[in-house]
From TrEMBL:
Family in the record: Belongs to the 5-formyltetrahydrofolate cyclo-ligase family.
Keyword match Lyase: no
Cited InterPro entries: FTHF_cligase, FTHF_cligase-like_sf, NagB/RpiA_transferase-like
Needed cofactors: Mg(2+)
Alphabetically ordered keywords of this record: ATP-binding, Cell projection, Cilium, Flagellum, Ligase, Magnesium, Metal-binding, Nucleotide-binding
Name of the protein in question: 5-formyltetrahydrofolate cyclo-ligase
EC nos: 6.3.3.2
Pfam families named among the record's database cross-references: 5-FTHF_cyc-lig
Top EC class of this enzyme: ligase
Organism, as annotated: Roseibium salinum
Amino acid sequence: MTAIPQLAAEKDLLRRQALARRKAMSDVERIEKSLLLADYADGLPIADSAVVAGFWPIREEIDPRPLLDCLRQKGHTLCLPVVAEPYLVFRKLERDADLVPVGFGTMAPGPAAQAVRPDVLLMPLAGFDNAGNRIGYGKGHYDKVITALEETGPLLCIGLAFSEQEVDRVPVEAHDKPLNGILTEQGYRAFG
């Protein structure tokens, strides 16, 4: 097995293990831990009036919506990702916006919503380590969009996850983009 397929296989195993731990949590535990994210909104290193991209939770993901509401109340513009080619696009999320399916099981404002460039990505993930490396779902959506957004200005990348999703070490491939920080129900941790 060559190095790249071996790294991909290691990541796939870690992904499956982290997702199994996440899935083993009760619904009540997931809800309670998701609500705790909002308690840390004031401690996040997000500049005033930043455009913040959240995500619509799927399966057993941590739910960022209470945190997003806190950030909206603090004056941030919110947006949600839409699966597109060559990479994700972000549509402005207005209060009471009609949401539509936009790929990968997620929801976002429809095509009439304004496209915006986020300053901050609050990102879902399958697993993460203490060095800020993350394991996504294997499609590369965030790695591609991070590369594109970094060409147009500064970008803050914060992973959102349950603490149960932490792994000892994420094998890193050349295309992988590290996190600036991680927010779990236990608080915010900066990397680098």
